[in-house]
Please model this.
Amino acid sequence: MKLQYKILALCPLLFITQCTTISTGDGPSATQRDIYGLAQEKRDITFSVDFCDDYGPEAWFDKEEIIVAVREDFEESGLFNKVHYSATGFASARHYHFRVNLSGTDVQTRLLLANLSGLTLLTIPVWHNTQLDWSMSHIYKGKEVFATSSAQSASDVWWLPAIVAMPFFNHATTGSRMKHSAIYYFLKEIRANRLNELK
Amino acid sequence: MIKTRIKGNSVIMSVIFSLVLCSCNGRDLSIYYNSEAHPLESYETISKDMQPRVIEVIDFKAAQERYLASGYIVIGSMSFFDTRVTQAELSDLAKQKGASIVICVSAQKGTQTRSYTVPHTTNSTSHTSGTISDAYMPGYNTVSYSGTTTTSSTEWRHHQYRVGFYKNDVIFLAKKR
Model:
């Protein structure tokens, strides 16, 4: 009976467990501190986002979240005057185009891994990978004058001892870190190459 | 009482099936790689602890010209149709080939429909009860019976999703000596 009660007590934990997510940076990334500083001359810019989802069901984010994150971070950077999203391509003389590609372990394998994890009651560590590839092109007066990319990957871990880390490392928190880290890197590159000062 | 039978074999089979499928690797991009005829001494290969820089661009020719003008040479290229190439895949291949810069452009040419199957287990329980009487038995006995039979069946349901189908053009660059 005692063992049954223990298993019953474990059940809520198993239900709330999605998975613990650990992110690793493959490519260049940055923090908010790297972009601190105000520009002398601020200009209006436009940006567009091309979002490609090869991840399949249960993708970490969608295009709207990317647009919101880019707009917020670009506005808060202090490098630009007004930041407008454009759905129709290169809308101004100073335009930033982002291509975001979300990919990872294919859906069938993910489901089989989830099945395997469930059958073993999370006792053996099972994980799958997600990759976030970002590219940014600066289109100045209709020409691409600068391009850079940032790649990050994350692992979803299904394992009972990893539950303790789940409140701090989950899809929402890790996804947010990955998004902002990539955008900060782009802002750092804009500052370093003085793209915001082009006349 | 009719005993309930649980098929434990299906669980073991699922685990083995999952392990076998999960061991499958991703695509091998090196089959698309075309090497340029440059002697190895003519360019600087990237060291193993360095990370190649992968840059996705819009204007492929302009980016290529920018790097050629700043002392780089093209050591290899590839062009293929598939899902969008990832930076991790290109970075791994660039390390193998010794390239320090990779320039790529991916143009969507359509969509591919992919499918996945999900095991869906259904349990059905049937109750049986009744009496058996035998008029020829001494004492004209009536025997009652009852039982429950649970059968579980696994059905594989197909689901579909779409992914982009791209033309990926890539060049691998290294610094000229």
User: Anything to note?
Assistant: Residues 18-197 of chain A form a domain with the Double Stranded RNA Binding Domain fold (CATH 3.30.160). The CA atoms of residues 58 and 107 of chain A lie 9 Å apart. The mean pLDDT of chain A is 83. The interface with chain B takes residues 26-27, 52-54, 56-57, 97, 99, 101, 103, 106-109, 111-113, 115-116, 119-120, 131, 133, 135, 137, 139, 143-144, 147-149, 151, 153 of chain A (CB under 8 Å).
